[in-house]
Structure formats: C-alpha cells, structure tokens
Design brief:
Length: 209
C-alpha cells in the first residue's frame, strides 16, 4: 500500500508540475507603448439639450390652457378679429416665457475626455482585442491616484502600429478640479498606460500576471 501511495503521490506531483507549466505566462506582452496622451473636449450641442427642466409655473400653465380654450372657441365661431387678438396675446406671452426659460435653464458647457495610446504589435500573432489601463500617479509619492480601464477591439497585425482612443465623461482624476485642469493640466500627475489583457486572432490570450 505504501508503494502504491508513493507512486500515486509522485504521479500527482508530475501532473501538478505539468499544469503549472501550461499556465506560466510571459512577463511582458508583445506590444510596445509608443505614445500616450489625453485631452479635454467640449461636447457639441450640450447647451441645446431639449430635455432641460421646465420653468412653467402652475398659474402660468392655467393661463395658457385658458387662452388656448378661448382661442379654439373663437375659431369655432369663425370670429376672425377675436382669433387675431388672442393669437397676438398668446405670441407675446410665449415669446416672453421662452426668453425667460432660456435665460434660466441654459446649462453650462459640458466637457468630456479623450484618452489615447499609440502602440506597436511586436509579436508574431495578430491582436484582436486589447484591454488597457490609463493610470495617473502622484508625481512625488508615485502612488496611484486614478485608473481608467478600457477595452479596444482593434485588429493589429504583427509589426504594425495602431492608435487606440476612448472618449468618456470621467476626468483624469477627481482630486483636481476642472478649472485647474485648464491651467496646468500636465503638472499635477505622472501618467502611464498598462496593458492588462490581449486576445489574439487565433483564440489565444495573454493575461497580465
């Protein structure tokens, strides 16, 4: 029995050793980071958002509904003079309400942020999908202060370069105000891009250790 147990134990070690060898991953992916950058961009048309808050009061709404009924009654009676008078009144009221609404509800401009990385496929296989993180570090302590995780479905052939970019609403880090970013946006932190995962066109996958 001891002999059989010893053989079983040795066999188990061999299987375990083989399994460990099949899961060993390369330390670095077959990509070279050439350039990274980010920029703040104004979102076009944000000020013209048609879903803004309504500032019509209850009394204003009652007056509007009453005027609409009077106007419809005048039209039913074919009273053209009264129709013209009511339409002028409605137009004056609507123009005033529209101007007041624009003055009060126009939202401030909205910005978004575009993150970019240029890289080169230095391996022998075509890249199909790549997960990459844009990381911001404290320039003094080198501690991580923010990380943005992206997935890009881009085919990158061996030896070829590709620029990946993602546009989101999140700023580089919430610890720095948007106003400050306008002034000295490159002096608040260090930056780097980390490749977290690569899926190749042949179905194989590289995963960050």
């Amino acid at each position: 029995m001891k002999t059989l147990a010893g053989i079983f134990f040795i066999g188990l070690l061999a299987v375990t050793s083989q399994a460990q060898q099949t899961t060993v991953q390369q330390e670095l992916p077959d990509v070279a980071i050439l350039k990274i950058s980010w920029s703040k961009e104004r979102i076009p048309g944000w000020e013209n958002n048609s879903f803004g808050q309504s500032y019509e009061t209850y009394e204003t709404m009652r007056t509007r509904i009453a005027d609409e009924r009077l106007l419809q009654d005048a039209k039913n009676r074919n009273d053209k003079r009264e129709v013209a008078r009511l339409e002028r009144n409605v137009k004056v009221r609507d123009d005033a309400a529209l101007n007041n609404k624009k003055a009060r509800e126009t939202p401030p401009p909205r910005d978004g942020y575009r993150y970019k990385v240029s890289l080169k496929n230095t391996g022998a296989k075509t890249i199909k999908v790549i997960d990459w993180d844009y990381v911001f570090l404290d320039p003094e302590t080198k501690n991580e202060i923010a990380r943005h995780q992206f997935t890009s479905e881009e085919k990158i052939h061996p030896g070829k370069n590709k620029q990946l970019e993602v546009f989101i609403l999140s700023p580089p880090t919430k610890t720095v105000s948007a106003k400050a970013l306008d002034k000295k946006e490159r002096t608040f932190f260090d930056e780097r891009v980390e490749v977290a995962r690569i899926e190749y066109s042949d179905g194989s996958v590289w995963q960050q250790p």
